[in-house]
Design goal:
By secondary structure, this protein is of the alpha/beta class. The protein has 2 domains: about 180 residues, 3-Layer(bba) Sandwich (FAD/NAD(P)-binding domain), CATH 3.50.50; about 80 residues, 2-Layer Sandwich (D-Amino Acid Oxidase, Chain A, domain 2). It is built from 8 helices and 18 strands. The chain has an 8-stranded mixed sheet. Helix 1 runs parallel beside helix 5, helix 1 packs parallel to helix 8 and helix 3 packs across helix 8. The longest helix is centred in the first third of the chain and has 25 residues. The chain is globular, with a radius of gyration of 20 Å. Bound molecules: flavin-adenine dinucleotide. The site of flavin-adenine dinucleotide has 42 residues, from helix 1, strand 2, helix 2, strand 12 and strand 16. The site of flavin-adenine dinucleotide (FAD) has 42 residues, from helix 1, strand 2, helix 2, strand 12 and strand 16.
């Protein structure tokens, strides 16, 4: 049966959920308080680095890795499909991931072996990268990246082509407790009707739902990133102790990012710029002469253990949650969208959905 579904939030998670629902033949509206696929105040998806891999997966639980793995596996075909359908190239690239010491070599190698992820210990100098210690680096050649602003543009175009209704510059008010949801008010007094609603509002999800789901543990975690255009670029993503550099296909280089608990402040700071520059120059000394082209931030939907909520609302019928993807929403989005739409259809998902239930 065709349903009308309203999705609240047009980041990667909302857009991917819309795509799944549209593919199932439903009528879909995305409500976005800003503009989909643009850099506005704090949204995470435009701002993200675009590494399609959970940095150090051996540090995460099986439910987190189940989503990142399934999501990552979908990206090559998804990017090709978007290019074919929309003409927008999301710059999907298998750049590989060079992990510089210090890290837990044994845990890393064991995890990679158990999960069939190619990994090889190497000398960082063989990759033209400065290593502060003489210890070996780890090379993960299969790790991929996308360019988030381009990916979001491709998604937006695909959704337009497939008649997904986009209500932009429209904000929904915080929800009050009801037993069944059929309508939701906008901040300018309009009443929106639907058969089902999905909250994909990222860092703002708790503000929207706190009167109905007090245990939903999501808060903004700011990340700042710098952009360079170096004369000579890296050939692979490089990571050292919480810091990464991502070379883009057209010669740009990203360096970041921070994990800051500063509420909904989506500004950038000189102090962080200086810190990131120092870390980048330690890996790539030639950056000392290079200006920072751009400096931005995004508010991640921060959650304990990086575990998102992908489930029906615990008490309100017709309401679903797909939110709280924290550091890996880009990577997880395809798997997460598939999971929530399977739950909404009342079908049995392939992934065990129990770890992502909304606490009551
Ligand atoms: C610096 C940085 C680097 C990152 N790097 C990576 C990476 O390399 N790989 C990776 O996998 N992930 C990365 N991430 C994380 C990833 O970007 C996020 O997990 C993901 O974007 C979350 O997507 P989302 O759609 O849930 O949230 P968002 O993109 O924030 O979208 C939520 C949307 O909801 C809208 N909204 C909120 N409230 C309302 C309302 N009341 N009414 C209407 N609309 C509303 C907002 O305007 C917003 O557009 C990074 C994040 C940052 C900040």
């Amino acid at each position: 049966m065709t349903k009308h579904v309203i999705i609240i939030g047009g980041g990667i998670v909302g857009c991917m959920t819309a795509m799944e629902l549209r593919n199932q033949g439903h009528q879909v509206t995305i409500v976005e308080r800003n503009q989909i696929a643009s850099q506005t105040s704090g949204e995470s998806s435009w701002a993200g680095g675009g590494i399609i891999f959970p940095l150090l997966p051996w540090q995460y639980s099986a439910p987190v890795n189940a989503l990142t793995r399934t999501g990552a596996d979908a990206y090559r075909a998804l990017s090709q499909k978007l290019l074919l359908d929309t003409g927008v190239d999301a710059n999907f690239a298998q750049s590989g991931f060079l992990l510089l010491p210090k890290f837990d070599t044994e845990a890393a190698l064991t995890w990679c072996q158990q999960n069939h992820v190619a990994a090889q210990t190497v000398k960082a100098s063989n990759f033209g990268v400065q290593s502060l210690s003489g210890e070996n680096a780890l090379w993960l050649p299969e790790v991929c990246q996308i360019r988030p602003p381009y990916f979001m543009q491709a998604m937006r175009k695909w959704l337009e082509q497939h008649q997904v209704n986009m209500l932009e510059h429209t904000q929904l008010v915080p929800l009050q407790q009801v037993s069944e949801l059929h309508t939701w008010q906008t901040t300018n007094g309009e009443t929106l009707h639907a058969d089902q609603f999905v909250v994909t509002s990222g860092a703002w999800s708790f503000e929207l739902l706190k009167d109905t789901a007090a245990k939903l543990n999501i808060k903004p975690m700011r990340g700042q990133i710098l952009l360079y255009q170096p004369k000579e670029n890296l050939q692979q993503i490089v990571y050292r102790e919480g810091f990464y550099m991502i070379p883009r296909l057209d010669g740009y280089l990203l360096a970041g990012s921070t994990l800051e608990d500063v509420g909904f402040d989506s500004g950038v700071t000189d102090q962080v710029r200086i810190e990131i520059q120092a870390k980048a120059e330690a890996i790539m000394p030639s950056l000392k002469d290079q200006p920072v082209i751009k400096h931005w931030s995004g508010l991640r939907p921060g959650t304990p253990e990086n575990l998102p909520t992908i489930s029906a609302h615990p008490t309100i019928k017709n309401l679903y949650l797909n939110t709280g993807h924290f550091r890996y929403g880009l990577t997880m989005a395809p798997a997460s969208a598939k999971l929530i739409t399977t739950i909404m259809a009342g079908e049995t998902p392939q992934l065990d959905a129990s770890p992502y239930l909304c606490a009551q």
